[in-house]
Design brief:
- Helix 2 packs across helix 12 and helix 3 packs across helix 5.
- Strand 3, helix 6 and strand 4 form a beta-alpha-beta unit.
- The protein is about 55% helix and about 10% strand.
- The chain contains 14 helices and eight strands.
- The protein has an eight-stranded mixed sheet with strand order 4-3-5-2-6-7-1-8.
- Pfam families: Acyltransf_C, Acyltransferase.
- Keywords: Acyltransferase, Membrane, Transferase, Transmembrane, Transmembrane helix.
Length: about 375
């Protein structure tokens, strides 16, 4: 085992990651809070301009872990002319499959490489906004938080979308129409629901929940916004599974991303017609997934026209940013931790141990957020409410 490999598997190094990430996150949250209440009421434009860089400084530490620490990469399957003309130059409403623990982070690699990472938004459960650092950052970044109460969510989606489409810089908003992570158990419940409701029965995706989609689209029409159909897959034959823990251990994974720009005018007006359009899109996504899992190619048997494939160079900013934060955070933090541990006082020793334990707990809690939630489900009750 080489020195570098040993470092990547070292619990001490992982602790340093955790200290840097969470301490920098709290510092960034502090400035976001001041700006949110002190600047945003007077100038949303200036607030969003500054907050872009604060969000980027925080998010890109995870991008660093994926592409610099673990050496992961992303192969894109996109029409090159569309990519050069539109990607990063207009607001995007991203519809992505939710099949893996790290699909969102691999998506962030693309966002960073098209200079949009600081303006990435998402639909998320309301409870997430109360989680320190990442949840607070999403709150201050004006992500859309849902309560799973349709009367409240519908109005919230309307108000937030109308705000987001007025962003001064390009913004991408991510929606997972499946609502939860794919598992075989959830697939069984999803297929049962689809049969009961006469909807397309999918093999590799959960039946999409359409209300969030149909409630969002009307408020995007007439704006500089397009839909981006995103399909992410990892080859089943890859020995390294795409998990956050493997990335932390420095184990490389390669994501394959198909992306197609769809003018928002192609979505028919009316909730029922728009919902039917989304179900048809997911049928196509299912064909692509089946083709990829069986042949290693999105296009071989899916019937989707083959498109360009290429990779983008990784940018150095996530590396520089993470190194700078490590210096700013770790030098004083480790100095005072060592003083506590070597003070000879049992009380100070216990305080030092408690701080170390807290950072470890935060690190594994954050890793656990990307794992499949045992509490989330796809059953008839939930699906009926979100259909």
């Amino acid at each position: 085992m080489g020195v570098l490999t040993s470092m990547k598997q070292s619990s001490v190094i992982h602790l340093m990651f955790a200290i840097t990430f969470f301490t920098s996150g709290l510092i960034i949250n502090f400035f976001q809070c001041i700006l949110y209440f002190g600047l945003r009421p007077f100038s949303k434009y200036l607030y969003r301009k500054i907050n872009y860089y604060l969000c980027y400084s925080f998010y890109c530490q995870l991008v660093f872990m994926a592409e610099w620490w673990a050496g992961s990469d992303l192969i894109l399957y996109i029409d090159k002319k569309d990519f050069d003309k539109y990607f990063g130059n207009e607001h995007g409403y991203l519809l992505m499959n939710h099949s893996y623990e790290t699909d969102w982070l691999i998506g962030w690699l693309l966002c960073d490489r098209v200079r949009l990472l600081g303006n990435c938004k998402a639909y998320a459960k309301k409870s997430i906004q109360y989680i320190p650092t990442l949840g607070w950052a999403w709150k201050f970044a004006e992500s859309i938080f849902l309560e799973r109460s349709w009367d409240k969510d519908k109005e919230n989606i309307k108000n937030q979308i109308m705000e987001l489409v007025e962003y001064p810089d390009t913004m991408w908003l991510l929606l997972y129409p499946e609502g939860t992570r794919f598992t075989s158990k959830k697939l069984e419940a999803s297929q049962k629901f689809a049969i009961e409701k006469g909807l397309p029965v999918l093999k590799y995706h959960l039946t999409p929940r359409t209300k969030g989609f149909t409630a969002s689209i009307p408020h995007m029409r007439g704006k500089a916004t397009a839909i981006y159909d995103i399909q992410i897959a990892f080859k089943p034959s890859d020995p390294i599974k795409p998990t956050m823990k493997n990335l932390l251990l420095g184990k490389r994974s390669v994501g394959h991303m198909y992306a197609k720009r769809i003018p928002i005018e192609e979505v028919p007006e009316g909730d029922e017609a728009a919902a039917e359009w989304l179900h048809k899109l997911y049928q196509q996504k299912d064909h692509m997934a089946e083709s990829f899992y069986k042949t290693g190619d999105f296009f071989a048997t899916s019937g989707v026209p083959r498109t360009d494939s290429f990779t983008l160079k990784r940018r150095c900013y996530s590396l520089i940013n993470t190194i700078l934060w490590a210096i700013v955070v770790l030098v004083p933090m480790l100095y005072y931790l060592l003083r506590l541990l070597l003070s000879g006082s049992i009380i100070y020793l216990l305080i030092g141990i408690a701080i170390i334990f807290l950072f470890y707990l935060l690190m594994y809690k954050t890793l656990g957020m990307s794992e499949i939630s045992k509490g989330s489900s796809y059953g008839a009750t939930d699906a009926k409410k979100d259909k």
